[in-house]
Amino acid sequence: MLNEDFSRRGMLSFATGSLTGPALASLLLRDGKLRAESVPGEAQGVPHHAPTAKRVVHLCLCGGLSHLDSFDYKPELARFHGKSLESSERPETFFNQIGLLRKNDWEFRQRGQSGLWISDLFPKLAELADDLTIVRSMVTESANHTPATFEENSGFRLNGFPVMGSWISWGLGSETDDLPSYVVLPDGRGFPAGGTINWSNGFLPAQHQGTAFQVQGDPIRDLFPSRASTPQRERDSQELLAQMNQEHLARTGLEDSLQARIRSYELAAKMQLAVPEVTDLNAETEATRAMYGLDREETADFGRRCLLTRRLLEHGVRFVQLFSGGSFGSPRINWDGHEDVHENHSREAGRMDQPVAALLRDLKERGMLQDTLVLCTTEFGRTPFTQSSEFVVGAGRDHNMYGFSIWMAGGGLKPGMAYGSTDEIGWKTVEKPVHWYDYHATVLHLLGIDHERLTYYHNGIQRRLTNVHGEVLRELLRA
């Protein structure tokens, strides 16, 4: 007998902590009460052409990596160090505190057979220069962290739009039935600017929202029941919940929120078996764990997430997103080097350089890099002049939306090359500007998706990741 509080809403709430809800979709499908094709799924007719990549890793560096100290060598800055910016146009920056020009804080060297210029900020990653494809001419439309990060992930500066991981999940689905197609591994120190909106499904079906994993403790909160239940109670609960939802569906028709809830419960049941296995990093050899830096305090956090990324990809997850950098404020635990770029970037690069290099090496050795696309982006770059209210050579740099760098690897890209360029001091893009629209169009193309054809009807508009813009960067594609 149900008490007055054990309503349908209460049953759904109870189901999130037990196996009651996960079995619901299976029960409905088994009884023929819900057609499989009525559950929100993926786009039809995708891929549009033969893909060169099957899966994606996205490293998202929050705060604004200084391209001038990492991937965009500007030797003229050393000559101009300590001088004022000679320009009739007063530069516009986020804080508008214009100091003197400052040379790079790390030495640049030509790396590998390709001779790509990469600084000593990333010594381990620099060893893999011949596997990297660097874009040195990125531009964006905001110098404010939150809208710039939204734009980086969704193509729009406003929230409410699906991020790229959700578009790819909707377009291609997952290669496994046991894990989400889109997994997010946030920085343990905090969420990025805008929080969970950065892995939002927006107006796409709810099942395509990124699923955030925790690397320490339980990977997913409330995945396992909080209290024991007898098998008979489980069966009775399943039957009752199936009946209640059947009656609800009969009254209201199919609705996205309920369908997504049903689908998530079904997936949760499978995840209770799959997640403990995929997240067991102790199953790896000591040599592998050391390669990722799990034996060092400095690199252990990012190393665990990089190693987990490889295991998630092996188990069929389509899109894994790792965030480097957390919340803003003081102290800054991200790449936002306003006060002191050297101190800030030394700390952040020290956390991720070895693990990211290990991930690339590991994927390559396992034959996975050829069809895995690895992306490393940041919402904007930093200025060639220091941020200072006085006319001095300060230690920090302000935000720069006019020219910055990202890198990619694997998945059908031409390796060991750099594309585009900024001016002689790295202030503004002057050759082959690349907007996020172009970047997104290129990523989708490598996955076999025509960015103009992957659309979703919402509020009277056929929406797409690239809005009404975007050109595939064909010079980056392997012939």
Give a written overview of the molecule:
This protein is α/β, with parallel strands linked by helices. The chain folds into 2 domains: 1-38 and 227-264, no CATH class; 49-219 and 279-476, Alkaline Phosphatase, subunit A (3-Layer(aba) Sandwich), CATH 3.40.720. Helix content is 31%, strand content 16%. It is built from 12 helices and 17 strands. The chain has helices spanning 8-15, 24-30, 76-80, 123-126, 145-154, 164-172, 231-252, 256-278, 286-291, 297-314, 341-365, 436-446; strands at 55-61, 98-101, 108-111, 116-119, 132-138, 182-185, 211-212, 319-324, 372-378, 381-387, 397-400, 404-410, 417-419, 421-422, 429-431, 456-458, 461-463. An 8-stranded mixed β-sheet has the order 7-6-8-1-9-12-5-13, sandwiched between helices. Helix 2 (24-30) crosses helix 7 (231-252) and helix 10 (297-314) packs parallel to helix 11. It is globular and about 75 Å long. Mean pLDDT is 86; it is low at 1-40.
A few lines on this structure:
The chain is an alpha/beta fold.
Principal-axes geometry comes out as globular
Helix content: 25-40%
Mean model confidence by pLDDT: 86
Give the CA-CA distance, first to last residue. Answer: 68 Å
The total of beta strands comes to 17
What is the class of the largest domain in the CATH system? Alpha Beta
Query: And the CATH topology of the largest domain?
Result: Alkaline Phosphatase, subunit A
